[in-house]
Design brief:
The protein is α/β, with parallel strands linked by helices. The protein contains 14 helices and nine strands. The protein binds thiamine diphosphate.
Length: 342
């Protein structure tokens, strides 16, 4: 059966609108601390999570909010949790990184790689108590350097556990590129541990959906885990307010904030030799320049834009759907904010 693109697009669009609304709350100062969004991951989230059934488990990383939305967690409780409100999903104590919904068997963690053992544990329990159920772990490619995730892949393979390992590879872990910290090839790593690999374009929701279906069928029928390797782009970089992006988006406002202290540091009398300080400055400028020229944030890499193109033939249906979803998200945010002290 082919994927229902309309249904998948509606999920992706809702995730995007929801995260945009969360971003606004954060920019308005209503959410404290860091905020990691999954903007750019929507095709992976919709393609995989839409296929889960009751009794399946979901273990997420620090970008798990949209996946919980698709899984059916009450969005008002989610927003209240992000706001730190006692009426939030976890009493306002978890924030966006440590979310838990017992009825959905869904959990997230800010500890990089922790979704591996959580999903593998769920998988082991399912094998004994609820055959046919599966567990999904979402994580970034940086997590593939965490021992506990590699141990999870190993155990899932040797015990043939029903676990889908979904690696959302955006090529960056905060400011480190994949190539600067990861040796070898991730697919070979998974295969070396006995886990079959499906490599997919994480911007293409049909591709993700089809691969996830294959992996889920394998897992449900007792054939063990699969490593889904999906490439994607994070449009907000590591987290909201990421400094390099801020400089690219608002150079006039941001540059002086960086340039003034940097100039002081370079010109001051003591400290490292001048040439070393200059080399540091060159590194900073090169990072800004790389961000300016980074082609990955172009529209062509946006999973929403790519899917929308395929549905544009029926523009009125598309726009009506988008308007409905926008209203729905506005309503969620307004409901969550009722009673929040201003
Ligand atoms: C065990 C652990 N080490 C380090 C960190 C700090 N940290 C938070 S996110 C992150 C990068 C993770 O990169 P990746 O797994 O590729 O996910 P992405 O943020 O790119 O989605 C790091 C190192 C952490 N939270 N947990």
């Amino acid at each position: 059966m082919p994927p229902d693109l309309w249904q998948l697009y509606s999920l992706m669009f809702k995730c995007r609108r929801f995260e945009e609304a969360v971003a606004k709350l954060w920019h308005d100062g209503l959410i404290s601390g860091e905020m990691h969004l999954g903007t750019g991951e929507e095709a992976i989230v919709a393609g995989v999570v839409s296929l889960l059934q009751e009794g399946d488990a979901l273990a997420l990383d620090h970008r798990g909010t949209a996946a919980l939305l698709v899984r059916g967690v009450d969005p008002v409780l989610l927003v209240r949790e992000l706001l730190g409100y006692p009426e939030g999903l976890c009493g306002g104590r978890g924030g966006h990184m440590h979310l838990f919904s017992q009825p959905h068997l869904a959990v997230s963690s800010g500890i990089v790689g922790a979704s591996g053992p959580a999903a593998t544990g769920f998988g082991l329990a399912a094998q004994y108590q609820n055959p046919g159920a599966v567990a999904v772990a979402f994580f970034g490619e940086g997590a593939m350097n965490q021992g506990m995730l590699l141990e999870s892949l190993n155990l899932a393979a040797v015990w043939q556990l029903p676990v889908i390992f979904v690696c959302k590879n955006d090529g960056w872990a905060i400011t480190s590129t994949d190539g600067s910290m990861t040796a070898g090839d991730l697919n070979e790593r998974a295969r070396g541990l006995g886990v079959p690999v499906i490599e997919i374009d994480g911007r293409d929701v049909s591709d993700v959906w089809q691969a996830a279906q294959t992996a889920l069928e394998r897992a449900r029928s007792g054939q063990g885990p699969t490593f889904l390797h999906a490439r994607c782009v994070h449009f907000e970089a590591h987290f909201l307010g990421f400094q390099l992006l801020r400089m690219v988006r608002h150079p006039l406002r941001e540059m002086p904030r960086v340039a003034v202290p940097l100039t002081h540091a370079i010109l001051k009398k003591d400290g490292e030799p001048f040439r070393i300080r200059l080399a540091g400055l060159r590194k900073v400028l090169a990072a800004v320049w790389r961000t300016v020229r980074d082609p990955r944030r172009g529209l062509a890499h946006d999973p929403l834009w790519r899917t929308r193109r395929l549905l544009r033939a029926d523009l009125s249906r598309l726009q009506a759907m988008e308007n409905d979803l926008t209203r729905e998200v506005d309503h969620i945010i307004a409901s969550a904010l009722v009673g929040v002290p201003s």
